[in-house]
Design a protein that fits this description.
15% strand; 199 residues; single chain; 5-stranded parallel sheet; Rossmann fold; alpha/beta
Length: 199
């Protein structure tokens, strides 16, 4: 099995990355391989609604002059997909939403490629907007027929300057419990390698 965490922050080594890596460490402790995918420094264009992904049926987005393709291949290859974003004006970052919009469209146009993958969002806020952003990202999982476990709270934490999120003890516990629940759920959904739910 494999878990991928996509970091929507344009900052390198920021609070969102810290939380995602903490989540991945817990998942690794459960015996699942992981990969961290930052959007920092990458160019991700928005969906252009060309609908070619529904005509070609090859599971590939027709927009190829940016960095979306390899990221989507990581998503398709993973059993667990975790996304993280800081709050930008009450929303996830544009880069994150561009990835999710395009991944969702290609998936739905090609036989629901994301169906029954596990995962969920993690959100970092300076002060507010975290619940709106968490819901925004959560809706993407639900409309793509994915499975999201809970935790002891919503997967949110607070921090602005790099490293500040480490002071949010409740946020850290919530993210770690979320990761533990992903491992627990993976062990029950995919107990055997030939389970058709496991990709």
């Amino acid at each position: 099995m494999k878990a991928v965490a996509i970091c929507g922050s344009p900052r390198q080594a920021g609070n969102t990355e810290f939380l995602l890596r903490r989540c991945l460490r817990k998942i690794e402790e459960g015996g699942i391989g992981t990969e961290f995918v930052p959007l920092h420094g990458k160019t991700i264009k928005g969906c252009i609604a060309c609908q070619r992904c529904g005509k070609t049926k090859d599971g590939i987005c027709s927009v190829k002059d940016d960095d979306f393709g390899p990221i989507f291949e990581n998503i398709k290859a993973a059993d667990i997909v975790v996304v993280g974003s800081p709050v930008y004006f009450g929303s996830a970052t544009p880069e994150m939403m561009a990835v999710l919009h395009r991944a969702g469209y290609v998936s739905k146009a090609n036989g629901k490629l994301l169906c029954r993958k596990l995962g969920g969002p993690i959100v970092v806020a300076r002060r507010a907007g975290q619940n709106f952003t968490f819901a925004q990202l959560l809706y993407w999982y639900l409309i793509n027929d994915m499975i999201v476990p809970g935790s002891t709270y919503w997967n949110i934490a607070f921090g602005r300057t790099p490293g500040e999120v480490e002071k949010d003890e409740e946020g850290l516990r919530t993210v770690e419990r979320f990761a533990e629940n992903l491992v627990w759920l993976a062990g029950r959904v995919c107990p055997m390698p030939d389970n058709p739910v496991c990709r």
